[in-house]
Amino acid sequence: MQGMPPKLQFDTTAFDGIEYTGALTSGLIGHLTMTELLLVMIPVFLVGASFGSFLNVCIARWPLDLSVVSPRSRCPRCERPITWYENIPLLSWLILRGKCAGCALPISLQYPLVEVLVGGLWAAAFYYLGFTLEAVRVATFATLLFGIAVTDAKHYLIPDGFTVSGLIVVMLFAIVNMFLDEPSHFVTPWPAILGACVGAGAITIIGWLAEVIIEREAMGFGDTTLMAVVGAAVGAERSLLTIVVGAFVGAVTFLLVVGPIVKIRTRRRGEEFAFPDVPFGVFLAPAALLTLLWGDALIRWYVERAFSA
Q1: 53 exposed, middle or buried (CB, 10 Å; 0-12, 13-18, 19+)?
Q2: pLDDT band at 211, cuts 50/70/90?
């Protein structure tokens, strides 16, 4: 037909070597220019920062057994309700210069830091895993673990809100992925159930033995529910590896960093040194993400060296 413009021709040979596994894979992302990459990653970062904003609400309310739905966000100092335009992740904190619009008292730096870090977690997950369900699963799991670590560090408490919702989300994702059959770091539903039982049971037994040895409570029930979530995500073998890695990192941190600092402070105040309690969730959370992503490789590395001829 006359008058029709010629069809545009695109050179697609640059993408011949890319393995296509999803709507937008990490391989394709690797071929984007910096400008194109920013156009893709900035929206992902903002979505992650929005989840970080909600995570701040969970961190503030769940330890106090408060609802994260109602009432709406308010200043913890003057209890003035926060309007929607004062609650935009990162931007509102910067515009308000880190102060409440009502009482003008400082807003904790925790709020923008959590938003930035969670946004970064989401951007990293999508950068390395592409626009796939797996990226959403890893980003969601990392966000959950981060919230648990922050709450345990602040309150020596892991609220059921994190662990119950986490277990439900992990299991639902496992069922959905069973039908999509997408390659995943997470285990399938049946190993997830077994892993939840093994993870929760193992940490409970360890806590019981430690309590017998030191004659005081060594581990809270929150660690048990946390390991149920972790086991449902990574399976039985890697849940045990998570406990080993978390215990090792925690022991090294407290013996070489926290212990000496506390000892110096107590000496200056003329008080008797007492070793502080260990918020184990702070170390189990990053250990869980480590074993999710690289646990199989760590297990293979160990087995090859431990049982080589």
Answers
A1: buried
A2: confident
Q: How far is residue 123's CA from residue 110's CA, in Å, rounded to a whole number?
A: 20
Contact 144, 233 (CB under 8 A): no
Name the residue with higher pLDDT: 80 or 11: 80
Q: Are 203 and 219 in contact (CB under 8 A)?
A: yes
Helix axes 160-180, 189-214, angle to 10 degrees: 150
In degrees, to the nearest 5, what angle opens at C-alpha 124 toward C-alphas 122 and 129?
A: 95
Residues 6+ apart with CB under 8 A from 59: 110, 114, 147, 150, 151, 154
Per-residue pLDDT, 29: 66
Tokens of 294: 């690289």
Going by pLDDT thresholds of 50, 70 and 90, the confidence category of residue 186 is very high
Question: The whole model's pTM is what?
Answer: 0.85
- Enter the DSSP assignment of 89: T
Alpha carbon 121 to chain centroid, angstroms:
8
**244 and 284 in contact (C-beta within 8 Å)?**
no
- Higher-pLDDT residue of 244 and 259 is 244
Look at the block and give the residue holding tokens 């699963």.
137
pLDDT confidence bin for 23, thresholds 50/70/90: very low
Degrees, nearest 5: CA angle 190-196-199: 135
> What DSSP designation does 229 have?
H
